[in-house]
Each structure stands twice: as C-alpha cells, then as structure tokens.
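1st attempt posting a full record on here, be nice pls
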Amino acid sequence: MNFHSRAEVIIGKLFHLFLSQKSRFWGERAILIVAISSYLAHLLLILLVHFGFVTAESRFLTSPISAIYTPFSFILVYEVYLLIFYLPKSTSFYIGKQYEIITLIVIRRIFKDIGTLELSLPWFENDHDLQFTYDVVTSLIIYSLIYLFYHKILKREPVQQETSGQLEKKTSDFILLKKSISILLVPMMLLLALYSFWNWIEAASMDYLSGIDALINVNNIFFEEFFTILISVDVLILLASFFYSDKFHTIIRNSGFVISTILIKVSFSVEGILNNILIVGAVVFGLLIMYIHSQFEEKETIRSK
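the predicted structure (as tokens):
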C-alpha cells in the first residue's frame, strides 16, 4: 500500500469518527440536551432573581424572553459543526451554512434585545429600539436571500455523494483535501469554544454581573476568531482549486466566497447599522457570485451537447 492509499485510509477513518452521519446524529442529540438544559437553568435563574432569592441587575435576568439567547448559543455551535460537515460535500452548501450561521446570530441578538425594549416614542431616537428594528429587517432579508440561494440557484447542484466510482481522480483528490481540512477544523472548533467558555468563567468568577453581560463578547470572540480561520480555509481551497480546475468562472466563484466570508468576519468588529449592512452585503455578494457561476455552467452544458 503506497503513501496515498494509506493517507486515504487514515483520513477516511478519522472522517467517519468526527463527520459521519452517525457522528452528526449523536452530536445533534447532545447539543439539543445541552441547549434545553441551559434554557431551563436560565429561566430558573430569572425566577430566583424575580422573587428575590438572588440579587442581580443584569439585563439577561430581567425577562424570560432573554433566556432564549442561551440555548441559541449552543445551537450556533452545532451549526458551525454542520458547516464543517458540509465542507467536503459541496463548497456551495458550505458557504450556505455560513449564511445560516450569521442569520442565527442576528436572530439570537433579536431575542437578547426584545426583553429590554423600551417601546418609547419617537421610536427612532432610541438606540436600542433602532438596533432591534435593523436586526428584524436584516433577518427577513437574509432569510429570503438564503431561500433564493438554496432553492433557485443551487437546485441543479446536488450534494456530491461519497461513491468513489463516480468521481474522477482530480475530483477525488480535491475531496480528500477538503476532508482533511474538515477533520482539522473539528478539534479547532472545540478548542476555540472551550477557550471562549473559559474566558466567560473567569469573568463570571471575578464579577457575577459582568460575567453574565460578558457573554455577548465571549460569543463574539468565538465567531470572530472562527470566521478568521474560515477565511484561511477558503483561501486554501481557492489555491488548491487551481490544481483541479482551470475554469475561470469556478475560480471567480471561489474567490467571491472568500470575499463574502471576509465581509461576515468584518461585521463582528462593527456595531449599529454598519454591522447589518455588512451582513446583508456579504450574503448578496455571495448570491450574485453563485448566480453568475450557475449561468456559466448552463452555457457550458448547452455548448457541450
């Protein structure tokens, strides 16, 4: 057995361990249990504060609606796992998962803010109420764009199956590379999540109230850093694609996806309406890139007949 064959066997075993359908099933169940448990714990803490058993003035402990923020944080970690899961199967679905993650982040932010809405008039003079409005509109726009992305543009691009007999040598090697990257991303994701959680534990141990409010920043640390890693992954895939495809429109598509990921990453470093503009802009840019790519593919298919 040569080196390439041994590498395929090792990568296949590791991939089955971390990213098989079975691993996905048990990971989903574990995250759901943790999410439900965290939600009930947060609700219990809000009740204890409300009845005076615990003294705290954090905005996360004023409304039961704010408790939805906690399970959403764990669900988002699972969405990150799904992003890694889809990376070897389809670049387009992998990018789609990025858009789903940023949409859920905006939705989670809505649940965080809805518990502290002041509902004062004039509405547009209150920064919190204004940000809530931006987020609601942004979530509707992105949700609509994701629908177009999956059901209008990708409807002719099925997820590649792992039947090696259907794949040419170059495509098989490219998928093997993406599987290797996915395997490396799983422990990186777990370590980054643990690091972010540890930072929150440290903040909470020093100051209970600031520890709860610091939860927002901890999540920003996780997603901002993880999207930085994704940019490196996207660039690596882009460079590797030159070995396996010389199609101009495919290279431009992969380059466009890198730009889209960068825009999402930059959105974490800004606040207010600029944050929402960058998020919508990232998804619109990726959607247009994918649409133009699909038009190239259709024209090539027509010519080859």
